[in-house]
Write a structure and sequence with these properties.
This protein is α/β, with parallel strands linked by helices. The chain has one domain: 3-Layer(aba) Sandwich (Carbamate kinase), CATH 3.40.1160.10. The chain contains eight helices and eleven strands. Helix 1 crosses helix 3 and helix 5 packs parallel to helix 7. The longest helix is centred in the middle third of the chain and has 25 residues.
């Protein structure tokens, strides 16, 4: 953690963490080392006074879509519910990790499970944020066939977040897959319209349209580099910023 206290550029942030952020590259499950690294970055952000809501993915445990496609026994809707429950497992792990370093948290789940989480209630969520608690939003939207990207966009709109931060394994949005095409260009800023015209994979279509309707900017950045979460929230020009005009 940096000795210099960060100065946040945003007051209320929605951070989307994929399930992959909970495990090592190429592995599954939950890695304590990866969890600890993310936790320390999040603590720095919260200590700086940022109101932070987090949407967890669950792909490190189970992806509903892939599971349903590989099985003739489990129907797609059931597989998606299984994927939503995987996000709750990640949320519980993240909650304990954050609280072990003194960060107060609440889990709010779109699927009711009072034994481990509160139900998502917009006003209660905002009140937790105002009191300095990190709110971890689990179980997607509670409905099958809706991605956690869409859940992140919807929740960001509901809680009046200033920005959606999408942590990924790459350092922004490219004109093509940078792994397959070494000549792919990374954008530092791009507009919603350009993303649509070029069919770039920023988020899934539903999520993207929600952000576009609200004129809610998105920053896609590499969470794997330690300190990047704080740098992005401080306003440093990392990753790719997607907005109405493609500018800061």
């Amino acid at each position: 953690m940096s000795e210099n206290k960060m100065v946040p550029a945003y007051k209320r942030v929605l951070l989307k963490l994929s399930g992959e952020s909970f495990c090592r590259e190429g592995e599954s499950g939950i890695s304590m080392a990866e969890l600890s690294s993310i936790t320390q970055q999040l603590k720095e952000v919260v200590d700086a006074g940022v109101q932070l809501a987090i949407v967890c993915g669950g792909g490190n445990i189970l992806r509903g879509k892939q599971f349903s496609e590989a099985s003739d026994t489990i129907i797609p809707s059931t597989a998606h519910y299984m994927g939503m429950l995987a996000t709750v497992i990640n949320a519980l792990a993240l909650q304990d990790a954050l609280e072990s370093v003194g960060v107060p948290t609440r889990i709010q789940s779109a699927i009711r499970m009072e034994g481990v989480a509160e139900p998502f209630i917009r006003r209660r969520c905002i009140r937790h944020l105002e009191k300095g608690r990190v709110v971890i939003l689990a179980a997607g939207t509670g409905s099958p066939f809706v991605t956690t990207d869409t859940a992140a966009a919807l929740r960001a709109r509901e809680i009046d977040a200033e920005i959606v931060l999408k942590g990924t394994k790459v350092d922004g949005v490219y004109s093509d897959d940078p792994v397959k095409n070494p000549h792919a260009i990374r954008y530092t800023e791009i507009s919603y319209r350009e993303v649509l015209e070029q069919n770039l994979q920023v988020m899934d279509a539903q999520a993207f349209h929600h952000c576009m309707e609200q004129k809610l900017p998105i920053i896609v950045f590499n969470y794997k580099r330690v300190g990047n979460i704080g740098r992005v929230i401080s306003g440093e020009p990392l990753g790719t910023r997607v907005s109405a005009d493609g500018k800061q």
